[in-house]
């Protein structure tokens, strides 16, 4: 079949890499894609929010399946748009409805959904600018540290963990009164801080049945030892030692089932991926957040562990036949190290030529913020530039494979964290 994939990041390169391995895929188009997807599929110069352009491209190129990678077009309603056009209504789309995407588009909406459906999560309250005094009074009652979350989409950067009450109050005012995160912080969720180890759980669902994909742990801060500013993600590890069979059974019973059942019960159309950010607190799962798509860079560690046909999975989601899909997962380890432009997540320079190793055993180089310049050279074009995934029978072997390739990739001012996976290695010892 002809498949259209929307997006341009490392997640989309991983999707493309997996899709083209399937004999079910005859032609893959990626809009807009990056330099990595250009090598294995056909990039299309089309914005992910140009819904009419997407519809016309689908019709002109006999597209039989649409896969939406990032959250922005989902939150803006691309799935509803395509399913409401008579020419495209019969074409399966992998991605939730606009209402379903509100689970990521609004932190307040998702917290209320969790409460209604008895999904374990941290205590919280939501405030707007006209409730500033009530919000400041509420902060006085909270234990430290205090978590502040911009209600809307903020590219993974709208969460602040404040260590003092003064910092929390100043940040709260900045978010609501000075629009620190733009329109995303028109509402602010004040949340109880949960201690423990974070875990990302990925679920594929067609709205009725579901499949739990390999779990992963990601690393969000720019600095080693989880210090510095939050980023979109600096690395990931899969599988995760503390997510054993007993714990994952709890996750399924306490989180996954009530979430999928809640979507059906509340008539929220959802055919897509659900990323559940969890905190393992004293052996119990608590939901930190929902994302309505696969995570990045976790996708680059999760997809290499899926052994069954990925296009069959996508078709199962899009056509409501997921219960028939037999998911096979490799026991091997996959570890991803993200290489970023110097200065990220703040301002950074781009356009530096990138040199890649000729060969990388047991390693996959996924492109994210890359493009080619007028001379045909590969250059850095974004903050997160590449995600290098190492495979191995052990975590140690997978990390060694990833880092040996990372050390042979060069461009001016490139940066990466050298401690990815080290906390898990210590737990294993």
From TrEMBL:
* Gene Ontology molecular function, alphabetical: ATP binding; metal ion binding; phosphoribosylamine-glycine ligase activity
> EC number(s) per UniProt?
6.3.4.13
Specify the superkingdom: Bacteria
What SMART domains does its record include?
GARS_A, GARS_C
Transferase listed as a keyword:
no
* Reaction catalysed by this enzyme: 5-phospho-beta-D-ribosylamine + glycine + ATP = N(1)-(5-phospho-beta-D-ribosyl)glycinamide + ADP + phosphate + H(+)
InterPro entries per record: ATP-grasp (IPR011761), ATP_grasp_subdomain_1 (IPR013815), PreATP-grasp_dom_sf (IPR016185), PRibGlycinamid_synth_ATP-grasp (IPR020561), PRibGlycinamide_synth (IPR000115), PRibGlycinamide_synth_C-dom (IPR020560), PRibGlycinamide_synth_C_sf (IPR037123), PRibGlycinamide_synth_N (IPR020562)
An individual GO BP term: purine nucleobase biosynthetic process
* The keyword Ribosomal protein belongs to this UniProt entry's keyword annotation: no
User: Any idea which UniProt keywords this protein has?
Assistant: ATP-binding, Ligase, Nucleotide-binding, Purine biosynthesis
Pfam families, alphabetized: GARS_A, GARS_C, GARS_N
Q: Where is the ATP-grasp domain?
A: 111-319
Record pathway: Purine metabolism; IMP biosynthesis via de novo pathway; N(1)-(5-phospho-D-ribosyl)glycinamide from 5-phospho-alpha-D-ribose 1-diphosphate: step 2/2
Protein family per UniProt: Belongs to the GARS family.
Q: Which HAMAP family match?
A: GARS (MF_00138)
| Official protein name in the record | Phosphoribosylamine--glycine ligase
Source organism of the structure: Algoriphagus iocasae
């Amino acid at each position: 079949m002809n498949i259209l994939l929307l997006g341009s990041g490392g997640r989309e390169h991983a999707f493309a890499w997996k899709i083209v391995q399937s004999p079910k895929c005859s032609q893959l188009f990626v809009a807009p894609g990056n330099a990595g997807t250009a090598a294995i599929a056909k990039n299309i110069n089309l914005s992910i929010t140009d819904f009419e352009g997407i519809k016309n491209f689908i019709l002109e190129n006999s597209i039989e399946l649409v896969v939406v990678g990032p959250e922005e077009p989902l939150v803006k309603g691309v799935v509803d748009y395509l399913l409401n056009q008579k020419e495209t209504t019969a074409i399966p789309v992998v991605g939730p409805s606009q209402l379903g995407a509100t689970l990521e588009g609004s932190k307040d909406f998702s917290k209320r959904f969790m409460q209604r459906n008895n999904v374990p999560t941290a205590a919280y309250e939501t405030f707007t600018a006209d409730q500033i005094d009530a919000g400041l009074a509420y902060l006085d009652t909270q234990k430290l540290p205090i978590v502040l979350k911009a209600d809307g989409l903020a590219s993974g950067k709208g969460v602040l963990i404040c260590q003092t009450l003064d910092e929390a109050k100043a940040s709260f005012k900045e978010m609501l009164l000075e629009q620190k995160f733009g329109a995303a912080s028109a509402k602010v969720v004040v949340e109880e801080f949960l201690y423990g180890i974070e875990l990302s759980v990925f679920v594929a669902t067609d709205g009725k049945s579901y499949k739990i994909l390999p779990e992963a742990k990601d690393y969000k801060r720019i600095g080693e030892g989880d210090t510095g500013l939050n980023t979109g993600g600096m690395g990931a590890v899969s599988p995760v030692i503390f997510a054993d069979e007993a714990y994952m059974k709890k996750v399924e019973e306490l989180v996954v089932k009530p979430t999928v059942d809640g979507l059906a019960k509340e008539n929220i159309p959802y055919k897509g991926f659900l990323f559940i950010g969890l905190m393992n607190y004293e052996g119990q799962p608590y939901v930190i957040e929902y994302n309505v798509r696969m995570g990045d860079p976790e996708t680059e560690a999760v997809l290499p562990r899926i052994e069954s046909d990925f296009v069959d999975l996508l078709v199962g989601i899009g056509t409501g036949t997921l219960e028939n899909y037999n998911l096979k997962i490799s026991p091997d380890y996959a570890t991803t190290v993200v290489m970023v432009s110097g200065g990220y997540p703040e301002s950074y320079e781009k356009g530096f030529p990138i040199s890649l190793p000729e060969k990388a055993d047991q390693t996959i180089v996924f492109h994210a913020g890359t493009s080619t310049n007028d001379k045909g050279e590969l250059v850095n074009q974004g903050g997160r530039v590449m995600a290098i995934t190492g495979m191995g029978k052990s975590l140690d072997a997978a990390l060694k494979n990833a880092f040996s390739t990372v050390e042979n990739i060069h461009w001016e001012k490139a940066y990466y964290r050298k401690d990815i996976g080290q906390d898990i290695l210590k737990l294993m010892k």
